[in-house]
Amino acid sequence: MLRSELVSYLANFLEVDHYKDYAPNGLQVEGKAQIKRVVTGVTACQALLDKAVELQADAILVHHGYFWKSEPQEIVDFKQKRIKTLLLNDINLLGYHLPLDGHLELGNNAMLGKLWELEDITPVPGLVRLGRLTQPVPISAFVAKVSTSLNRQALHLPGGPERVQTIAWCSGGAQGYINQAIAWGADVYISGEVSEQTTHLARESGIHYVAAGHHATERLGIKALGEHLAEKFDLECHFVDVYNPV
Q1: Are 119 and 177 within 8 A, CB to CB?
Q2: How far apart are CA 227 and CA 209, in angstroms?
């Protein structure tokens, strides 16, 4: 398909105009006009780019792309090498950050809810989700389920009840949303990362906090998006999971 068609489709499908984000969503580096083979991954690191070159990809589709508001503007060092790799090989780079977290069908948070078999009962739209297990389970069993499902040992900061049922979650570096989970009366709040103060908030607010990994909680959305595109447009899509323990 044409690059312009893919960019237009994703802008509508992911509703990018609904989000005020920290980086541009959509086409970030322009490559060839015709796209047949796509590599998907969490972050547009050099390892992912090198794999895309090896696979002779026409486009790379990621959750974490380039040109973040907080990053230096100079294109030097590793940033120069990354962009040079894309330009020399005529590969398109497309990045979708918050729209891929929040998409209600294929977003990171939607996919996590399905993975953990949670009935979504979120009261208001937003990135943070609220769900319910079919029946209460010991917190140790639920943490084990999170760890096993993501193939990564989760960090559990205890503070809530021994048996849990109501779960709030948000992928990535969303530990700051724990107050929203507390306000909703959740037994557990899950995100990717953790801060020093999170321990005290959990203990003093009667909620369990589970840090399941930034990378680990954001693999599902981009993989599902690639599979969706492959089915809808007959594109050849390859998900590449570059290991990241964070």
Answers
A1: no
A2: 31
> What whole-number distance in Å separates Cα of residue 116 and Cα of residue 145?
8
Beta carbons of 58 and 37 less than 8 angstroms apart:
yes
Single-letter residue type at 216: A
| pLDDT tens digits along 62-96 | 999 999 998 999 999 999 999 999 999 999 999 99
Q: How far apart are CA 27 and CA 45, in angstroms?
A: 16
Give which of 38, 150, 181, 172 is closest to 98, Cα–Cα.
172
d(CA 122, CA 178): 15
Domains and CATH numbers, the chain: 3-96 (3.40.1390.30), 108-214 (3.40.1390.30)
CA distances, 221 to each of 14, 35, 58, 84, 114 (Å):
11, 21, 20, 27, 11
| pLDDT tens by residue, 33-47 | 999 999 999 999 999
For residues 27 and 67, is the Cβ–Cβ distance under 8 A? no
